[in-house]
Amino acid sequence: MRLEALLQSKFGYPAFRPGQKEIIESVLAGRNTVAMLPTGTGKSLCYQLPGYMIEGQVIIISPLLSLMQDQAEQLMMNGEKKVIAFNSFLSRSEKRKALINLNQYKFIFISPEMLYYESVLSQLQKLCIALFVVDEAHCISQWGYDFRPDYLKLGEVRQKIGNPVTLALTATATREVKADIKKSLGILDCSEFIYSVDRPNIALTVEKADNFRVKTERLVELAETLEGPGIIYFSSKKMAEQTADLLREKGAKRVMAYHGGMDHESRILVQQQFIHGQLDLICATSAFGMGINKDNIRYVIHFHMPLQIESYLQEIGRAGRDGKQSIAIMLYAPGDEQLPLQIAENELPDKSQIDWITGWMEENPNAIMNISAYEEQIKQRSGLTDIQWRIFYDFFERKNKSGLGYKRILQEMNGYFEDRIKFKRNSIEEVYRWIHKENCRRENILSYFDEEKNTSVQFCCDICGLQFENFIRNTKSDNQDKTFYDWKNHLEYLLIPGE
Ligand SMILES: [Zn+2]
Asked: Is 373 among the domain residues?
């Protein structure tokens, strides 16, 4: 009963959600634990609650700044003062101060790149760490859809801070990714708690349109008729913004865009307005959603094809957290697979860029040991983007430390990036096949995660058959009739390819 009492007094919840208690008990028994809980089922409680029951600090490694910030704020709003989010949002002096006083905090959120600094690591070594949490642990696997090179050294970090009890949390991981998580963190002997990725209250549908224009028309129609609140996901910042503009011009007042290109304040504002019911619809990129606690989202539409089944599940999983019926709609027009392919390819440095760097290193052998000092120069002349640079730099530094010559490293890099692109291409093809399959969509997704569909779902998917009327708003908006004529001239504008 002690756990339930604490759950009530500290967090105000009368009961645990499925999975939470088992995971918490495992952690409290001092066992390393891997837990896979579907999006929206309260993963953070699995380290927050034990934090109040054990002596020492809880370290939480989190890959996304916004997610980390949200979770830290959530704890603070819950009355916890000993929380810090140690990341690049802190100024230099704030960081210094925080580092000296690290032992006064209970919950310490750290972004993985901070672990590069010896000063941070040596402070961590002085702490009495009760629990080491790796959030979004699938980022550790090179075959995970969201691989972060920074995550690779978490196993080493864990060792250096004395192998504390470790909890790896993720919402979606295939069998290979799970194996990678355990191996990288050095917790092969862990307890595993794996729950179904299925969310039966989310109906799954795919709608195929003949072309982009028809698809856009359908999107507008859906936005005007579906029962909200809702999220529409785009792969392009520009499209997210333009669609929000278009819907507003058509009279939908409570629509905003959200993407990573917006400044921090605007993003927080939009997020807060949406959470508090002042907005009905967000036109977003994948930057939106992690750590957003809004339980009454009724629909999620994908205007662009996601890059993999895992991120698709994460994104649609933001609907229906209150358990009520919700719907996920994927819109598809022929050729839609081109955009994700392009995005996947642009993320990594290509062969010509690496060849250029090889030549540059040949001419500047002294620069090799201090490559970060040449970041701007290399980026400018080889055309690497920030993300490409980070990936390049991380790979190079790791290998350089192990004493491989630069030519060998760059050769290996080329091979590795080729494999990575192949992997990404396969993931996109997987989504493409899913869209075009003709049997139950839920069954197909579950089998991707080695699961079987063994419950009957009332509103399962478009293939099993479902009535669309169930998802339509009762009161139609005034400007309903104008849907199809006053916005045609915007289409050309929308057709400009996004970034
Ligand atoms: Zn079905």
From this structure: yes
Distance CA 64, CA 59 (A): 15
Whether 125 and 162 map to the same domain: the answer is: yes
| pLDDT at site 116 | 77
92 neighbors 67 (Cβ within 8 angstroms): no
345-377 pLDDT tens trace: 888 899 999 999 999 999 998 888 888 899 999
Give me ligand 1 centre to Cα 295, in Å: 24
Measured in Å, residue 461 CA sits from the centre of ligand 1 at 4
Same domain for 332 and 387: no
List, as ranges, residues with CB under 5 A of the ion ligand 1: 440, 442, 460-461, 464
- Tell me the pLDDT of the chain averaged across its residues: 88
Comparing C-alpha atoms, which of 211, 329, 365, 271 is closest to residue 67? 271
State pTM to two decimals: 0.80
CA 284/CA 302 separation, integer angstroms: 10
Instruction: Please give the tally of structural domains in the chain.
Output: 3
Reported as a pLDDT band with limits 50, 70 and 90, residue 40 is low
Q: For residue 318, what are the domain limits?
A: 202-336+467-494
